[in-house]
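This part of the workshop introduces the protein records we will be handling. Getting from the letters to the tokens is the skill we practise here. The record below serves as our worked example for the rest of this section.

…
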Amino acid sequence: MAQSGPDLSFDPDLDHLPPEIRWREWMGRVEAVIFASPEPVPREVLSRLVGRACRLDDVIADIQHELQARPFELVFVAGGWHHRTRPRYAEAIRLVQQPQAGSGDRDLSSAERLVVTAIAYLQPVTRKELSRLFGKEVSRDVIARLKRLDFIGAGPRAPEPGAPLTYVTTSKFLSVFGFASLRDLPDIEALEEAGLLQPTAETNEPVDALDRELGPVGDDRD
């Protein structure tokens, strides 16, 4: 069956509407698309919903203003806009909601959370390099589970003997941990200057440092 072409009836400009009604319609379109999407919606997608004379940033700002008294908000994570419940209601939601497999950071154990955080800082990074960082072996099972949950993926082969695999974080990592991009990670240079990313066999400093930087996330099950 041939695929249908673009919907030519869709009018992003809405020139026939009075300015105030046109603006409200643009706001409604943008919020509806973000609300309906399970993933963050990129700016270039939202730009197709509004007219050429419309400033998308102003539309987003007006939506955020109207949501100030609501228990949810629009946030920019993983390269797009997403509806999120406000953090102060997290405990109330957990009280009545059964955890769902694959739903987010609560699926990660303490060790898995620290490994994926280290990968975010050091990517692309090999399993051997991660093991050296933590002063103990990072198992293949941990890497496999993080890949299965789509927190990490395969990076380029490392330029060293044997060309081992490297690992990088995914957009799901950014979305779940609430980062717009990797630039939002806590400053790794400050950790390096403090010597917290140079582990020794006698200390667990890198684990403690990464844990402090991101704070507790999910249940510790190790």
Summary: Confidence is low (pLDDT under 50) at residues 199-207, 211-222. The first helix runs from residue 19 to 36. The chain is about 40% helix and 10% strand. The chain has two domains: 19-88, 105-214.
